[in-house]
## 1
Amino acid sequence: MTEDAKRAYWRRNLRLMVALLSIWFVVSYLFGILLVETFNRIVINDFPLGFWFAQQGSIVAFVILIGIYAWRMDKLDEEFGVAEARHQRGGGR
């Protein structure tokens, strides 16, 4: 991989991480802490929405973001030709 390709790969990786961490910040910090009273006015199945974001929403969002990161990084690795071989037998690499 050339130096330009390495920089492009790293730049796209950083852009993806910043986007996903920004989403996580909004869900966990803003929705779960700063805006909790506002969201608590909305009640779904007897649970205030702010409480749900603070207790479960940020965790669910984090797990989803991990899946999105892994999926997007697999695509990026394939695009730059650094993907790992899949379905190898015997566990060797």
## 2
Amino acid sequence: MTEGLRESATFDRATIHAIQRAAATGVYDIRGGGAKRRLPHFDDLLFLGASMSRYPLEGYRERCDTDVILGARHAKYPLHLAIPVTIAGMSFGALSANAKEALGRGAGAVGTSTTTGDGGMTPEERGQSKHLVYQYLPSRYGMNPDDLRKADAIEVVLGQGAKPGGGGMLLGQKITDRVAGMRTLPVGVDQRSACRHPDWTGPDDLAIKIGELREITDWEKPIYVKIGATRTYYDVKLAVHAGADVVVVDGMQGGTAATQDVFIEHVGIPTLAAIPQAVQALQELGVHREVQLIVSGGIRSGADVAKAIALGADAVAIGTAALIALGDNHPRHDAEYRALGSAAGFYDDYQDGRDPAGISTQDDDLAARLDPVEGGRRLANYLRVLTMEAQTIARACGKSHLHHLEPEDLVALTIESAAMARVPLAGTDWIPGARP
């Protein structure tokens, strides 16, 4: 009987369970995924479609282009992508080899890029990826100059939205012979990546490192710098001064394969709040659109893509949504999720390596469940839908290219989102916090 009972807003059932779990085990909770708390997000923004003062484009007869060039500031060979939706870095180790191959196949089919992650480059991933971005991380796991040269761009990772200021985790049950061999680690032993690069302590050192990476790759590859969204305005300025061709800002809705729950939920700022800070920094330096901005953290739909671009991003990156497209949390696995103490739509124990979908596992039998060809086809379908949705919105706003979307096309539904996104509250010309 629960009639008349009142649940505490402070000590709700999830909180009570967390306290009981901590008391029983004496260890903090580690999980995958991103923040689960309600945060101001793209859902709090709306587009102002054209009517009288603006003229819409006809969807079946008038073009709306979607391509984007990344890294033309210094690189000989910038990336020219057909769509502004890229795949974020997710490591082999966190993901199975089949999942990495599927990401490469799906991205390649629609002319966009995928990204390696902490742990090196697999032949399957390189072989199936038309455009592959190679992550250069504090751990240096799997890093070697030959793979740097095989990549199409290099992403220097300084932070991640789910855990800015923290390093990665890969628990022992996922460190197989192959993963251990690529990372030069012992088999079956928990691994924790460093939270900062060992050979630089500030932006001046980073400029030297970027120069080294350019020399190693003969100035051919664009150099990205990825930061977790915290002090975004200052971090973006420092990244540009250090020589970045592209800045990647990852908001706190961004996912991870394994981190402390307290980190995921309590460190960083929402993606919505980070974009205007990044754009302001680029504009003040006079390099907005010259240094491209990629935004990640909670991108789910073409509307999210269009809103991020309207706020000033050049492209977005998806991680969690890409895994869902491959089959993560699919209802057909519900019985197996429940056997693990979870359910379809709730599964986030990527660290355990027992993923029934075969995505976040190194178990050979489980990994074999994911067909990389079929997974790639599903991801490509999803990317096409994101693109068509974004085009639909852009045409409704009278724009012939996604990059013609602008903040003036947006209004906010809440005071919080208006202040963060720096667009007017719907039905007013009021931007909370805006300077006169």
## 3
Amino acid sequence: MINLEFITNTLSLGSLYAMLALGLVIVYGILRLVNFAYGELIMVGGYTMYLLTFYTPLPWLAVVVLAVLAAVVTSLLTELVAFRPVREKSLTAMLITSFAVSTILQNGALLIISPRARAVTLPQIFQTSVMIAGTSVPWRNILTIVTCIATLALLTLLLRRTVLGIALRAAADNFTMTRMLGVPANTVISTAFAISGIMAGIVSIFWIARSASVTPTIGLPPLLVAFVATVIGGMRSLTGAVVGGFVYATIISLLGVLLPPGLVEFREAFMFAFVIIILLIRPEGLIRSKTSVERVG
């Protein structure tokens, strides 16, 4: 049934998926690289929250700031150590590197912490709800929506009102021309990875809040969601990433309501069938970008 609860749940899910997709597409926009290690940045944020809440008396606000910072630092390190040396090689080398980074980070978590799920202590607000128009709405959903709006507003300001943001947009349109005009390539690419890390760190807070636990493989489901959402919206468009995130959330929520109970567990298969239909009609995604198809060399 489509009611206020359904709408807030869908908006919350869409907000989460939109932030996920943005973090993936901002790197793809410049490097033409689907970073398969993106999900592990969420894992890093989750384990940072687990370690800090379990072993330190830090307040929750400090914990989430440090979790986002850990994801950003990890993202920048992967760009510096793993991707930069092979950036001028083939796209295949970049893809294999991203798989390697993903596997290394996962195995690092397995060896250093544990293969078992670790409980993350969350503040009380993540387990409480508020009554709106006679409907119980979890604070977690409200916080997700508000955070998404604030993040999108700040990202829009960065991309439209700052020199660095304009350089990022120019690099996404034509990276070779941007470099010829004197914009340092390493600065632009590192900024894209930093923003990707920020998005992953923020998403880790709300993704972990849904299960209150973290595992070494927790990054795979959000990576798949981000990838599908960007394909739906358009791989070369930031706006498309946001649209794709909300479209994905709407379809998956509607399937959960409309499918017979016996078929609900197969809704992912129906979801991918819808994605195929969308791509048959709009192969470039719902939002067409003006960017060229060049890749950074």
## 4
Amino acid sequence: MRRFRFRLRSVKGFFSLFLVGLGLCFALAGCNTAPADTASSGDAASPAQGETVNLTLVSYAVTQAAYEQIIPKFAQKWQADHNQEVVFDQSYGGSGSQTRAVIDGLEADVVALALALDTKKIEDAGLIETGWEKELPNDSIVHKSVAVLVTREGNPKGIQGWQDLAQDDVQVVTANPKTSGGARWNFMALWGSVTENGGDDVQAEAFTTQVFENVPVLPKDAREATDVFFKQGQGDVLINYENEAILAKQKGEGLPFMVPTDVNISIDNPVAVVDANVDKHGTREVAEAFVAFLFTPEAQEEFAKVGFRPVDETIAQQFADQYPKVNKLFTVQDMGGWDEVQTRFFDDGAKFDEILAKVGAA
């Protein structure tokens, strides 16, 4: 394990990093003997060819299984092409917490977060240049997922789709969209299941309100929501990511889940180079090569193996049996884009707060 040199921007940042640090997992790939002082030295000079170069990847927890396979492949390719060893420092945690950590001083060269809204926060902090979405294929969306409904063994409540979540006798587990990026996908999936299926906003609000009347607790993030459902045994159905459900199944830890295929949201996961940090570290060339590598069939296949829907069409076809086709797959852009979604639904006093007020008064 190698020591990072952080430059904290605030006292709040210190506590943010401290909390994130509890859940951080630092690992080395390609070489585990790199000297500690090769990290984030603050020297803007690029590493000379043949010298070890360090790259810091900051991502959210469930991507780790894929990157453990992808990083050695990239490191091998970089070594062959450039006669240079590349060593990765990896940090995994909740997407929102990781975002805060990077803003507060975790010197990521590359961020691969759960939603573009988090990446945009780093852009707003001045660390990523405007227009990052257009620097990579597919608007920098490197893989996708959809929302799924995880049920108890045998599906005793007979959950078959979105509308069943509004039944009076069904308890739904989902995290708080005000504090969890993953829960924002869940909220939009509920809302869009109405509006993208011919309903209007009034009907969408009525349905979403009914569902949240069935939510007994609002965990702060997706991981806590999963614990509430699996470890504490609360609820009849958990709204989760398809990739998490698949990965849990692969580990033998999963419960039955179904993918609503009539209408669903495309959970788009971006990747970006952190411009301020790669320029500081002299790692722009290797960082840009790494993010480009993530779109190759070789890397896309590794994402697909652990539950992410690949954006490479050829690889998507190879894994078509694993990922049911959704008839009406909508995106955040279909709902106006992240800025509008944030303002309309999740800002203080916006639609989600209104719904919570109704539920509290019910």
